[in-house]
Design a protein that fits this description.
heterodimer; A: mainly alpha; MetI-like fold; 2 domains; 10 helices; 0% strand; B: alpha/beta; Rossmann fold; 6-stranded mixed beta sheet; 3-stranded antiparallel beta sheet; 8 helices; 9 strands; globular; disordered N terminus
């Protein structure tokens, strides 16, 4: 049998086997539904979410927070990364403080954000922004710092002015590193949004998970884990796709 | 020899010195007084061991650094804009996100040449270096030799007054290098460009050059300057002639 058909078989057989194992375990040991629901119950809950439309407003809310936080966070990250990348002096002055905030667990700052910005949208977006900001900033700094010295020499020969140097050489050259930061940022944004909803607010996928957990609707909780995982993968993959298209020259 | 006397000087270097200050504060004389004329339309090779000041001289000619002493006199006025100097590096230094055509066009885009004209000139230049069908390719899709052709096209596309080539074929394998040497002779004949060419290879210097300046290190200076009377018709057959071998052994002795 060829390697490829084997792989195709395993692609279907492995998950089926795992689900069967799960199902068998629940049945055999009579596990209570609120501890570990059977796969078919999780399936029913998942389908139900979409059939009766419960999921849509929550999904929209979460996507909105991710989007807003990602756009604001990556813009701020890019601007500050740009300034720091261009000015090592500025980096020496404010770098240590940034490093302090970068290493501080942002999750631990969440209660502080809630204190400052209330239980609403603002604090949720602020949390996402704080998570997206640093990887994008770091990527931008790295990208601008790793422009090959040769390109600078070429720019010198052609007497490029500052603007042309930046737009035609330095920024395009920094795109791969910036994108690496954006990809990390996107994953962080998804986690941050769900976590923020977990902590505050009455809407969103995170809220729905808390709701399912506290009311012992375990099949719903499992379904939500699936939904959020797929959401995370989808967001990452769309950025990776954009990257592949933009960076086809690599 | 009469022919050479008729040639006019493009740029004259007079008693040029360059002293670098090291981090410890001591001075390093990279170039002790160097005097040299570059004639219009010639290929002048600079040959010598590492540290002989070849690169320093190139950087000074390109205007990338200021000399410590001496002067550089351009017959038609000092270069002021990017269009005056063409530079070919040892590495092709193509921008990887631009197609080959766009890389060759890059200087024209920067200088604000009208789009149609830029396209035509880039296309013509690609034809000249034998890359006519590769304009749309990305640099990564081309071999090392082809990339270096593209970088030569980029240096020539704006018709600079002086083309500086800093070991342009040093990173290529020998076969490709031989082919590129013939290409360069052809390109030079077609464009009548003035070229200053840095190389480590005695063979390359003898094969390509109208004149060869032998440089020696510590401090960097020109120890000998030769006019190579090998004619303007250069091809493989030349490499088997006694005259060519005579130059090879002479240059080799001087570099010892």
């Amino acid at each position: 049998m060829s390697n490829r058909s084997l792989r195709t078989i395993f692609m279907f057989v492995t998950p089926l086997f795992l689900v069967a194992l799960w199902w068998g375990y629940v049945r055999l040991f009579n596990i209570p539904r609120y501890v570990l629901p059977a796969p078919n119950e999780v399936g029913t809950a998942l389908v139900g979410l979409f059939v009766d439309g419960t999921i849509w407003p929550h999904l929209a809310h979460t996507l909105g927070i991710i989007f807003a936080g990602f756009v604001i966070g990556s813009s701020l990250g890019f601007v500050l990364g740009f300034l720091l990348g261009r000015s090592p002096k500025l980096e020496r002055i404010i770098g240590p403080y940034l490093f302090f905030f970068q290493t501080a667990p942002k999750i631990a700052l969440a209660p502080l954000f809630i204190l400052w910005f209330g239980l609403g949208l603002t604090s949720q977006i602020v949390l996402v922004v704080s998570l997206v900001f640093f990887p994008v900033m770091a990527g931008t700094i790295l990208g601008l710092r790793s422009v090959p010295a040769n390109y600078g020499f070429l720019a010198d020969i052609l007497h490029l002015n500052k603007r042309d140097r930046l737009v035609r050489i330095e920024l395009p050259s920094a795109v791969p590193e910036i994108f690496a930061g954006l990809k990390v940022g996107a994953v962080q944004a998804t986690i941050g949004a769900i976590l923020a909803e977990w902590l505050s607010g009455g809407q969103g996928l995170g809220y729905l998970m808390v709701f399912a957990g506290t009311t012992y609707k375990t099949p719903l909780l499992f379904a939500m884990v699936l939904v959020t995982s797929v959401l995370g993968i989808a967001i990452y993959q769309s950025l990776a796709g954009l990257e592949k298209w933009l960076l086809s020259w690599r | 020899m009469a022919q050479i006397e008729e040639q006019s000087v493009l740029v004259g270097v007079k008693a040029l010195t360059k002293i670098y200050r090291t981090r410890e504060g001591s001075d390093v004389e990279a170039l002790s007084p160097v005097t040299l004329d570059v004639n219009r339309g010639e290929l002048l090779s600079l040959i010598g061991p590492s540290g002989c000041g070849k690169s320093t001289l190139m950087r000074l000619l390109a205007g990338l650094e200021k000399p410590t002493g001496g002067e550089i006199n351009w017959t038609d006025g000092a270069p002021s804009r990017g269009t005056d100097i063409g530079y070919v590096f040892q590495e092709p230094v193509l921008l990887p996100w631009l197609s080959i055509q766009d890389n060759v066009r890059f200087p024209l885009d920067v200088f604000g040449t009208p789009k149609n004209e830029a396209n035509d000139r880039a296309a013509a230049m690609l034809g000249l270096v034998g890359l006519k069908d590769f304009g749309k390719a990305l640099p990564k899709e081309l071999s090392g030799g082809m990339r270096q052709r593209a970088s030569i096209a980029r240096a020539l596309v704006y018709r600079p007054r002086l083309v500086l080539m800093d070991e342009p074929f040093g990173a290529l394998d020998l076969l490709t290098r031989d082919r590129m040497n013939d290409e360069l002779l052809r390109i030079k004949a077609e464009t009548s460009a003035t070229i200053v060419f840095v190389t480590h290879s005695i063979d390359e210097a003898a094969y390509l050059s109208d004149r060869v300046a032998v440089m020696s290190p510590r401090p960097g200076r020109i120890s000998a300057l030769h006019v190579l009377d090998l004619g303007s018709e250069r091809n493989e057959a030349l490499k088997d002639t006694p005259a060519f071998h005579g130059w090879l052994s002479l240059l080799r002795r001087e570099l010892k």
